[in-house]
Amino acid sequence: MNFILVGISHHTAPVEVRERMNIHESRLPAALTDLVARRGIREGMILSTCNRVDLAAASEDGVEAEPELRRFLTELHRNDLAPYEQYLYWRRGRDVVRHLFRVACSLDSMILGEPQILGQFKQAFAAASEAGALNGALHEVARQALAVGRRVRRETALGTTAVSASYAAVELAKKIFGSLEGKTVFILGAGKMSELAARHLISSGATSILVTNRTYERACELAQAFGGTPVRFEDAFEQLGRADIVISSTGSREVLVTRERVERMLAARKQRPMFFVDIAVPRDVDPAVNELNNAFVYDIDDLEAVVASNRKQREREAAWAEEIVEEEVERTLRRLASRDLAPTIVALEQRLERIRAAEIERFRGRLGNLDPSQNEAVDALTRGILNKILHGPITEMKNGAGDPEHGALVQLVRRIFGVND
Asked: Residue 1: pLDDT above 70?
């Protein structure tokens, strides 16, 4: 079976190009049906996300699939493919298997180790299966890609550390509080990073959200998005002591959260911890607040230091994940080769065994009367010769599994040894 893949991703194209090539999930069933109905295309799968579109196919032996895939994309998008050629990448044979495995493991993602891609890959696999577009070797490769993705999650720490400032804030908060269940978050200044950090905190268990901003309408918008409570800016510091976690990102030129204010808050809270995420520049929170017991302040540099450390850790884990991928690629291709080549290998062995048996019988008269041990020696000798003859072509056929020329190689071997279809 010949594998081929054409794709476009964040590595090769800007977002405006990826948008034009995107295939909405509502169009996938019809697109997959059209794909596998094309001449020489036996199987197909389409993975379409905001960061990539990968179209994988398996073609019949002797079919050049690239022109069909180009026509498919041209007709699907109703647009000339020429302006997009520079952004496309092509994979063939074992490189298709490796690419799909790396994608499922998030080794090819914009954020190394991000967890969403495995779920997206699973949805693409399900869509192709339901459309009847996966039913052979490519089905096995895609299914194994999901297994490899799960293995990488299980055996490495590739996706366990924060690689954005907002995620790092949540990670630090969990270290301080243990659990964020039932914690109250106060957003001081409704900036984008504050919003992202708040979303991550809520998804980790924080339940009560207070939002303030100099523009009260903006505070109301953000509070509504989180199901929280807006607070007028002039009343904010009366409410601040209710918060376990304070995310601050105002545009103030002066420090807003002083040591004295926090000292009073902690006394009113009976020394229950307060965690300040100060992502404002200039800073909103006095660094001296960190000197107080049960007060923890992290500014943007602290968060970036955590992120940088975590990125290095992910890169180390990615090296191990790449080794897992290579191991699984070889294992998968060997399994495919053994399955697909079994009829050819059996036919070769039978063909040469018939020749061996006929030649021994033809020379029986010349050999004279052989005793059992001599017969056994002749038998072992001739079988050994056959095995050595077969070793080369069988090994080459197994090693070439998935390559575009593999089908032609198998047919050539069959012709050379006189094996009929």
From this structure: no
Question: Are 405 and 367 contained in the same domain?
Answer: yes
Q: Of residues 72 and 227, which shows the higher confidence score?
A: 72
Which residue among the candidates 15, 30, 50, 377 is catalytic per the annotation? 50
Domain identity same for 185 and 149: no
Count other C-beta atoms under 10 Å from residue 29's C-beta: 15
Contact of 138 with 45, CB cutoff 8 Å: yes
Say what the pLDDT of residue 169 is: 81
Distance CA 258, CA 421 (A): 85
Its domain, for residue 34, covers 2-158
Asked if 50 is an active-site residue, the reply is yes
| CATH at 114 | 3.30.460.30
pLDDT of 360 over the 80 cut: yes
Is 316 within a domain?
A: no
Q: Which of 181, 47, 27 is nearest to 101 (CA)?
A: 47
Domain co-membership, 14 together with 134: yes
- Count CB atoms within 10 A of the CB of residue 410: 21
Whether residue 171 has pLDDT greater than 90: no
The predicted-structure confidence for 376-400, as pLDDT tens digits, reads as follows 888 899 899 988 988 888 888 877 7
Domain contains 327 = no
Burial class (CB in 10 A: 0-12, 13-18, 19+), 235: exposed
Q: Is 70 exceeded by the pLDDT of residue 335?
A: yes
